[in-house]
Design goal:
Layout: E1 2-6, H1 11-20, E2 25-29, H2 42-49, E3 53-56, H3 70-91, E4 95-100, H4 123-138, E5 142-147, E6 150-151, H5 158-168, E7 171-175, E8 179-180, E9 183-184, H6 185-201, E10 211-214, E11 221-222, H7 223-236, E12 245-249, H8 269-275, H9 282-298
Parallel strand pairs: 1-2, 1-3, 3-4, 4-5, 5-10, 6-9, 7-12
Antiparallel strand pairs: 8-11
Bound molecules: NADP nicotinamide-adenine-dinucleotide phosphate.
NADP nicotinamide-adenine-dinucleotide phosphate is lined by residues 6-7, 9-13, 31, 34-37, 57-61, 76, 98, 100, 128, 147-150, 155.
Length: 299
């Protein structure tokens, strides 16, 4: 099977690269090979590669910058997935795409279910929602993996930012009224691989059984809880950390260009029942990532 994987320089793409090789030949398309800001070029590129499975973690992910770059965010997050899906629909090729908790407005405290009504607060969230809907409209066999608060040992993410700040500052001030599940790219890749293993063993992957599925770590915390766990985890692993206090602040104390949901909890009912996948707790996944981070820093 020929598998086209985008976003290979990003967190989720990098984490998926090796595991996807279990299912066939992975054609890793970085931005130079397939520029998603040029949706008009996608059909020809796909005709050349002729993938039998498309996995698309590439996205415009600069949440605040998107407020100023609406057109670019929509081209990459909505028009490009639409073009991938249109090509896939014509040939019955399955598409695995990724989306976000930021499609929701974050009201209430209940975990969001896949069928709950989205109402994005930001351009980024709106562009991702438009991508979801465009894919569904094409009718291609698809799975849209909604995830949240992604991090890895490399790349640009909260874990790396806190690890740096913890070595520079005695006091960190971190938002404590946004709740969700920090999710390592590694456990997203594990869940997607588990789903694909079963789907690809059947006759027609995701035909009549795909749609949207939430994939995030189990459990809930705030950014403050996540930062505290990172700092404590680094200290426990002997990393020289100067941070003594992680102070909880409100979202209103840390203004950002884009508004973010206060409640990013994602419900796992469909993931468990339909796809038979159970996610590890966020603290277990963080411990695994911190072990990797510490050995990377020590090397
Ligand atoms: N990060 C999060 O906290 C988070 C939370 C919820 C959902 N998600 C979703 O999960 C998925 C994976 O996110 P991630 O954290 O892995 O993202 P990431 O680390 O920011 O990586 C984004 C990837 O997209 C590529 N890309 C951006 N613009 C492109 C273009 N014009 N053409 C081709 N490739 C382009 C980037 O390539 P370059 O290296 O060349 O820029 C990079 O490989 C995305 O769909 C995202 O919306 C992420």
């Amino acid at each position: 099977m020929r598998i086209l994987l985008t976003g290979v320089t990003g967190q989720v793409g990098r984490a998926l690269w090796q595991p996807l090789a279990e299912f066939g030949t992975v054609i890793a398309a970085d931005r130079a090979a397939l520029d998603l800001s040029q949706p008009g070029s996608i059909e020809r590129a796909l005709d050349e590669v002729r993938p039998q499975l498309i996995v698309n973690p590439a996205a415009y992910t600069a949440v605040d910058l998107a407020e100023d770059e609406r057109d670019l965010a929509f081209r990459i997050n909505a028009e490009a997935p639409a073009a991938l899906a249109a090509w896939a629909a014509g040939r019955g090729v399955p598409l695995v795409h990724f989306s976000t908790d930021y499609v929701f407005d974050g009201t209430g405290e209940n975990p969001w279910r896949e069928q709950d009504e989205p109402s994005p607060l930001s351009v980024y969230g709106a562009s991702k929602l438009a991508g979801e809907r465009a894919i569904a409209r094409t009718g291609c066999p698809h799975l849209i993996v909604r995830t949240s608060w992604v991090y890895a040992v490399d790349g640009k993410n909260f874990l790396r930012t806190i690890a740096r700040l913890a070595r520079e500052r005695q006091e960190l001030r971190i938002v404590a009224d946004q709740f969700g599940a920090p999710t390592s790219a590694r456990i997203i890749a594990g869940a997607v691989t588990g789903i694909l293993r079963k789907q690809l063993a059947g006759q027609a992957p995701f035909v009549g059984g795909g749609g949207i599925v939430n994939v995030s770590a189990a459990g809930t915390t705030s950014w403050h809880g996540f930062a505290t766990a990172i700092v404590e985890g680094l200290k426990a692993r002997g990393v020289p950390v100067v941070a003594e206090r992680v102070i909880p602040i409100a979202t209103s104390d840390f203004p950002t260009k884009a508004r973010r949901p206060l409640n990013s909890r994602l419900d796992h009912g469909r993931l468990n029942a339909v796809f038979d996948v159970t996610m590890p707790d966020w603290q277990v996944a963080l411990a695994e990532e911190l072990d990797g981070f510490v050995s990377m820093v020590a090397a």
